[in-house]
Amino acid sequence: MSLSTGALETPGRGAGLADVFRSRFLLKLLVSKELKVRYRGSVLGLLWSYVKPGVQFIVFYIALGVFLGLEQSSRNPNGLPNYAIYLFSGIVLINFFTEALGNASRSIVGNGGLIKKIYLPRQLFPMASVWVSGVHFVPQILILIVACVLNGWRPGLLELAAAAAGFLIVALLATGLGLLFGAINVYFRDAENLVDMLLMIATWASPVLYSWVMVREQLGETVFNLYQLNPITVGVEAFHFAFWLPTTDGAEAIPPHLLSLWLSVGLAISAGILLLGQLVFRRLEGRFAQEL
Question: ABC transmembrane type-2 domain location, by residue (predicted)?
């Protein structure tokens, strides 16, 4: 009696992100479960998606726009026009990234009880965290759009394409890093502390609160080009180009070669990190149940 091994697979390993696509219904259930668990017993519920970024925006706007003079005014003509929109367009994107990466990196350990009981594609858990962050991103971007329209925002196809590209770059980066640190965190819980430090740096390592011009003037062209290699930087600049720049008189310059070069570079780097995260995740996922 012969036994065919052609259809056998290594236990605990699937087809990677292809399993997520084939398990779309399970992904939907996990997203729904995360949202229900997160807001269980909460008075405001999903309204926290408005409150938290709103408070964050007010604090940064008063501290930087008013006290440090980044807002353009009659007393400070060298500030940024419509600094409130400039600031909020960066905040909504960086909030999506920090929430997605923070939750995705803890998703495997957080669902350890479920992983030890049944087998389902492990990639579903980090992906569900990214999708939940996307749900929270929607009301914030709607508020941004309303504010932009009230300030004369009339976007063209180029601006809309830039916004979509910026979001895609950051989403791919968050997913890739979420898979990477989510897998490593099962074996080394220090990964959570490393992610916390990265998230603390992320807001300041991209032009969310300040202008890219400051980086080039203070650090020079060479360092500025290295600064542009950060996909979050490119994503935030794309959002500024799409949402903030059309509300100004157009005198403000966008970073050199943003549309012709840096968007493609940012997309390539984010795609590469996604591939790396997927490879590491598939390499380590076979022993998740035992390690948890």
Answer: 44-284
